[in-house]
Amino acid sequence: MTFQAGRRAAIFGLMAAGLASCGPRLPGGGGAPSGSSAPPPRPVPNAGYDGWVAGFRGRALGQGISASTFDNAFAQGGGYLPDVIEKDRNQTEFTRTLEDYLAIAASEERVGKGRANLARHGGALRQIEARYGVEPAVVVAVWGMESMYGERRGNIPVIAATSTLAYQGRRGSFFEQQLVAALKILQNGDVSPAGMTGSWAGAMGHTQFIPTSYLAYAVDFTGDGRRDIWSNDPTDSLASTAAYLARSGWQRGVPWGVEVRLPAGFSGPTGRGTTRSPSAWAAMGVRAASGGTVPDYGPASIITPQGAGGPAFMTFRNFTVITRYNNAEKYVIGVGHLADRLRGGAAIQGSFPPDQYGLTIDDRRRMQSRLTAMGYDTKGSDGVIGPATREAISAFQRSRGLPATGEPSRALLQMLG
Hints:
This protein is mainly alpha-helical. It has helices at residues 7-11, 47-62, 67-77, 82-89, 98-105, 108-120, 122-132, 136-147, 158-168, 172-188, 211-217, 235-247, 278-283, 317-323, 329-342, 361-373, 387-399, 410-416; strands at 156-157, 197-198, 257-261, 287-288, 301-303, 312-315. The strands form two sheets. Strands 4-3-6-5 form a four-stranded antiparallel β-sheet. A two-stranded antiparallel ribbon has the order 1-2. Helix 6 (108-120) crosses helix 8 and helix 8 packs across helix 15.
């Protein structure tokens, strides 16, 4: 996902990957990429699309694309994909709290797999750090958030996806720009049309680059002459992510942020627009959640993403750098916290307020466990109320002759015993 700040909003809105829901672009397969195991959508005949491609050919050749590159790309990887248009027009807007988002972003599964990948690719990651100055845990955290460490890279032909989205008109100029960039990638010889696959919106590889960002930031770290972010070897993808963060101003040895405790009645300014030195915050009574004062990592802001009743963080320059990758605050905290956990850091220590149903995350986990034990499978007990949990609740309610609302509640929890 090496992308211009805000490109996520342009492309994805809110998506879920592996996480089924989170706000700003979900961790682990990023709501965009389809699972590699699912068959890709098949192109269908569309005379209007064919006419658009014929007209676009001249515009592409005028931007330096050779006729052979264009014709080969559309012969091997083009086609009209109505499934892509359906996804673009029906993106579900999930509203996830930070607590739910982090429950997915830094789940035990994601942390465990991340630590295993840190060890497995340690040699390459150390070399990447030496060249770009970005710590291995940070790079791996982005990888984990974007594609669940390569497990969910997407298998939709990028030429077909971007040309379909350019043709259908909504954000047509943006996707035409991505299509031209994809053709340039093919012309450069980095990948074949058949091998250029990704999400329905054209994000590619282990860390989900869109084509224009690939052209700007991808690197050939292995030295084989290709910037290969598609193969099972993640080295070029990881190096490209580090290169992107480095060019955005990453400061080695500076944390993205530190969880802090605010003094009772804290009335100091919060939000990313206000900075103070850590010593100035300390003078106002702000302390690290782990105890003591926060070291001086430079100008810092205090943010309270879930309000006064939730955890607070002191953020530094590298927080802003991660926003260049994805401008959503929850995403940045997710990457930063996952990186901390991969290095052995603690879970969030601050408490979160109950949800809109009056349930804590432990209540929701207990509800999921009990439903699953009774035969209503919630597909896990992470405390996040997603489609599977709502369907399980509905099935339980129907079995008791109750209205099938799919809504959790304290009464439901008590009924489950």
